[in-house]
Amino acid sequence: MRRETASSSKKKEGLGWIEWGRGWLCLIQEMLFQRIMASHLQNPLPLPPVNDLTCIVTGSTSGIGREIARQLAEAGAHVVMAVRNSKAAHELIQKWQNEWSGRGLPLNIEVMELDLLSLDSVARFAEAWNARLGPLHVLINNAGIFSIGEPQKFSKDGYEEHMQVNHLAPALLSVLLFPSLIRGSPSRIINVNSVMHYVGFVDTEDMNVVSGKKKYTSMLGYSSSKLAQVMFSSVLHRRLPAEAGISVLCVSPGIVQTNVARDLPKIVQAGYHLIPYFIFSPQEGSRSSLFAATDPQIPEYCEMLKADNWPVCAYISQDCRPTNPSEESHNIETSHRVWEKTLEMIGLPSDALERLIEGEEVTCRYGANCE
Ligand SMILES: NC(=O)c1ccc[n+]([C@@H]2O[C@H](COP(=O)([O-])OP(=O)(O)OC[C@H]3O[C@@H](n4cnc5c(N)ncnc54)[C@H](OP(=O)(O)O)[C@@H]3O)[C@@H](O)[C@H]2O)c1
User: Per-residue pLDDT for 301 more than 70?
Assistant: First the structure.
């Protein structure tokens, strides 16, 4: 497995507009050519044996997450649907069990409540899961929002909602679940990211976009949260010793027809539905996450990347090939600031990771004590 090299990865002063233009080109390229780029892939993606895996999939009541959960369960994994709408998840399980009946053992799938708009809910989820003292092999941080055209909103924790749901809450969940991920090692954290991170911009002094330095738009909120996730994941990946046995990856699902566009104006939605050739189905959009979660070469590839000078985590594109994330995500200084700022915002001490790896107890402002 080889990642495209980025000779241009050295961040130079004054390239902002060029990078931004390149970012938009990547986005347009993905929209127009993703089907051609992924034409070598089967749909659904054939999965290796996963009977021994326990996987948590956030946001699995809809779109890409729903496909990931169903396919992993049908391939034999123990799947935990981590969702805010438990009723919808139970109804889905019932439907999948009915469709599956007669094809093998009943699906091993359960529901746990998780609302990423509440960091308390994240901490409660992690506490409940860690209390089982069982292994966790794959955490798929899939749940996300893109409130297109909506005014700026804040969670009850005081954070801009895109930043909280798409980056802060998954970061807290990943760190708090470390004890279980170590028990399940070799294990993986998969962050369902987006090609939109190429046009993102993170100001660690203004994570909520309230200073007025940049005008808030939902596009800025979404793309910045996705870039922050790549930067945080890269530092996490870099700081994890090989002995911990945890791989950290980001993936791009492609441009996928899901409920994520629910806030688009009706007229734009109509256009979106008229171009099915360009847009992936959720099943097609689930392939990069499923590949990252199950391909046997992933741990070795992630370890190999640590030898790079630039601390960037593995990034799997919609066609299941390793790719290079944006120029800006290679900015070491900003990545480290994002790491520190994120830990501060999610209420964890700066040495939380090292202490958890050592098996020590870490107290989080949001009430989780993990060992
Ligand atoms: N679709 C695309 O073109 C595209 C492109 C790039 C990246 N992505 C990323 O792919 C991921 C999945 O999105 P999707 O396209 O499948 O969208 P979707 O159909 O809207 O699904 C999003 C899922 O996230 C859940 N969710 C939202 N807010 C939550 C919260 N506060 N707590 C817990 N769960 C929450 C939703 O639950 P409810 O059903 O309860 O709302 C839903 O299950 C996201 O991270 C998105 O950014 C999508």
Answer: yes
Domain boundaries, the chain: 14-340
CA-proximal residue: ligand 1, atom 6 (nearest): 194
118 lines ligand 1 (CB under 6 A): no
Amino acid type, 295: D
In the set 198, 222, 315, 366, the catalytic residue is 222
Q: State whether the beta carbon of 260 lies less than 6 angstroms from ligand 1.
A: yes
Burial 193-228 (b: 16+ CB within 10 A, else e): bbbbbbbbbbebeebbbeeeeeebebebbbbbbbbb
- Calculate mean pLDDT across residues 239-245: 94
pLDDT at position 273 over 70: no
| pLDDT (mean) for 252-277 | 74
Is residue 316 lining ligand 1, measured as CB closer than 6 Å? no
Whether the predicted pLDDT of 5 surpasses 90? no
CATH 3.90.550.10 describes domain 14-340 = no
d(CA 151, CA 4): 38
Q: Return the minimum-mean-pLDDT range out of 7-21, 187-201, 261-275, 322-336.
A: 7-21
Q: What is the pLDDT of residues 66-108, one digit of tens each?
A: 999 999 999 999 999 999 999 999 999 999 999 999 998 999 9
In angstroms, the CA 347 to CA 364 distance is: 5
Handedness of CA 113, 118, 120, 122 (dihedral sign): positive
Q: State in Å: Cα 330 to ligand 1 middle.
A: 26
Answer yes or no: 222 catalytic.
yes
Q: How far is CA 43 from CA 30, 39, 124, 285, in A?
A: 18, 10, 36, 10
- How far does the centroid of ligand 1 lie from the alpha carbon of residue 346, in Å? 21
- Ligand 1 centroid distance, CA of 187 (Å): 23
Closest ligand 1 atom to the C-alpha of 256? 3
